[in-house]
Amino acid sequence: MTRKIGYARVSTTEQSTDAQVEALYDAGCDLVFSENVSGAKKDRVRLRDAIAHVGQGDQLVVVKIDRLARSLTDLLQIVSKLLSNGGHFVSLSDPIDTSSAQGTLMLQILGSFAEFERALVSERTKLGLQKARQAGRVGGNPKLKSREPDAIARVSRQREQSYFAALNSSAHIWVPIVRKYRPRYAWNVVAGIVNGAEKEGTWTGERLRRASKCFVREGFLRPDVLSRSGRTSMEPSKVTMQIAGMLSIQPSLTLKEISEKLDRAKLMPPRSLAGWSQSSVRSEILKAIEIGLVEEWK
What we know:
Blueprint: E1 4-10, H1 18-26, E2 31-36, H2 45-52, E3 59-62, H3 65-68, H4 72-84, E4 88-91, E5 96-97, H5 101-134, H6 142-145, H7 149-168, H8 171-181, H9 187-197, H10 205-217, H11 238-249, H12 255-264, H13 278-291
Parallel strand pairs: 1-2, 1-3, 3-4
Antiparallel strand pairs: 4-5
Helix pairs in contact: 4-7, 5-7, 8-9, 9-10, 9-11, 11-13, 12-13
């Protein structure tokens, strides 16, 4: 049985969370966590407790987005952690409910805005450096150039946050696949499955390993996914991995639907130039089941 876990927050001790708490219980929350703390503070004890109570299929509910996070990057990180644990996020005053297709789309749009914002900042920085060079000034951070540890650490954290935000936009697809198949299968195999699950997957084994290492460091993946993979008796083909990826996110796909997807991906079937037949697709699914890439299929 799924549950709704509420979270209420106000910034100062003079304010009250009573109105938020009442709205959350009215929305059907089974449990509500509240605290008086600034949204800019990273370590919010009651928020951490609320997230810990969100299990598979549960929802973390807030009255407004700004009660959960003060920045888009912070919001995406929190929601990513919920999704990686099988939970969902709902904001009562905003069109976001990640258990629905519309809510997921809205979250992806927010992620796109974050990427756009980073691109604008990068463009302005490059333009500023170019003008500085033309004026005879040397660009850059003096503290960074002098190798001050604090400056280096700050730049490193900014890069990590930017990298994490970029990965986060598709984390709801690749994180569950990594969790399911690692370390049993090699990174290139798992990357092939992710490529089948994503609409335009371009993952390599090394890129997926680096992304997973980042998410392990942030606590969104177990450290054992980075362990050395075991050996398998059969090396799956690209088609087999693609099909396993398709079924990982849409287990109810029919043979006809899978064959159409393979044709659109321009993956040629063996011994045929006329496209994928349903019997050929069935054969590939049976191979995936034999290897263990697909657990069950009807």
